[in-house]
Task: structure prediction
Amino acid sequence: MSDTNVRRFQRARDEEEQEEDEQSETLVCPECGGSVATDTEHGETVCEDCGLVIEEGEIDRGPEWRAFDAAEKDEKSRVGAPTTNMMHDKGLSTNIGWQDKDAYGNQLSNRQRQKMQRLRTWNERFRTRDSKERNLKQALGEIDRMASALGLPDNVRETSSVIYRRALDENLLPGRSIEGVATASLYAAARQAGTPRSLDEITQVSRVEKDEIARTYRYVVRELGLEVAPADPESYVPRFASDLDLSDEAERRARQLLKSAKEQGIHSGKSPVGLAAAAVYAASLLTNEKVTQSDVSEVANISEVTIRNRYHELLEAEDGITT
Result:
């Protein structure tokens, strides 16, 4: 390397070090030494303690256009939807819409419609390159269908999609059905997110039997090392109370009954769904709201005998604490 190049390299390195030193100095306020924050709305760097404006006129890396409603924002946006694990290709491939209209909203001619239909067919074939992607596409469709039927939020769907992808990558599917592993992934994700659904509820929307779901769930949790805490009976109370149109007072009373049961230790080994249903029924009686055991049984999908047994146990635990 020539002397000229060496000097240029040394000068560039010195300039970089100087810039780094200047940036490190601006991390604290030069006036009071307080912490510094960036106000992206006004393009300023200000001190959080004394309010000194250290730097202004920063580069705005957002869009140069303004949108006043959601429709205008979608119309002006130049990027697609964010990537998601709920689609087998994470939403990165092209999707040809089903509407037979052009960019201006005009209807396509017969010849153009036939051409677009052929393009849709070939696009669907190319989106799934091999059997693994076809497997994943079918499973994620099942997860989305079951989650919609159970009213589960998007974060549960994302988590279940990740669990299924892990099971597929670690080759846990041979000998098991796609629907079974997809259902087990959704069941595990719902419990991890604190919005559990009972095994009976999962079975009602699944295409496989209850025993297979339970067996596959245990296998997936064990092989993937998932940390799934036991379902908390209190997590079922808001849904049951909402389905029965109970008041907030009844819901709070049901939570108190369950807390008393935990303190007495009678919840151990009991079904959390049965405890929650019995607590809701007992709370409705204590707050003078007319709810029958049959109504609670239908909402919670458990037998009335279970409700009666747990109901007496909850009241005894409550009496044990008050006395």
Summary: Strands lie at 36-39, 44-47, 53-56. The chain has three domains: 3-56, 131-224, 233-322.
